[in-house]
Structure formats: structure tokens, C-alpha cells
Amino acid sequence: MTAKTPGGWKIKARLDKKGKIIKHTNGELFKIQLVDDKDGTKIEGIFYTKETPVFHDILEEGRTYFVSKADITVANKKFTSIDHSYSLIFKEHTEFEEIKTLQTDS
Description:
This protein is mostly beta strands. The protein has 1 helix and 9 strands, in the order E-E-E-E-E-H-E-E-E-E.
């Protein structure tokens, strides 16, 4: 986590990997891997049933976002390959603000 904001925390991170939607008996989910823009730390994020249709189609690999208002939980090492002690659980109030970069012609 890089920056504190009055309402909690905010990170600037690149969406490195976006998983496919996985359907299970209780609904569906998908996972993403974020890379912190400041120090390169990787962290996993998980979207569950209500959030999956909201976020899956709008988030794109390779794009950089300010991310805030997600729950932070201890990572379940049985279900992640990312070496981080925590995971982010994204809720319907989670915010992803894409950071646009200027394109220059070479």
C-alpha cells in the first residue's frame, strides 16, 4: 500500500493478470494480480459473485489504476501463487480509477 487517504488507503497499481470467471456452487469469482507502481510488490485481488459482472469486462490487463475501498484480508496460501501476506477483496463500493498515459509518436 502506498498512499493514505482520508477514507482509508489507495494504491497505484498495474493490472498484471486478469483471470477467467470461475463458476462454483455458491456463484462465481475471478482474480486479478496487481503490481504496485512504487515498489513492484504483487498482490492478489478477488471479485466474488455480485462484483464479477460489474468489474470483469471493464478492467484491462496492462492498464494502471488507482485502487481504493477494498477489504484487506490475510491471503489464503492454499489458493494463491502470489507471495504476499494479504489479499484484496473487492466489493461493489471498490473504486478503480484508470490512469491515462500520454501517447507520443516516435
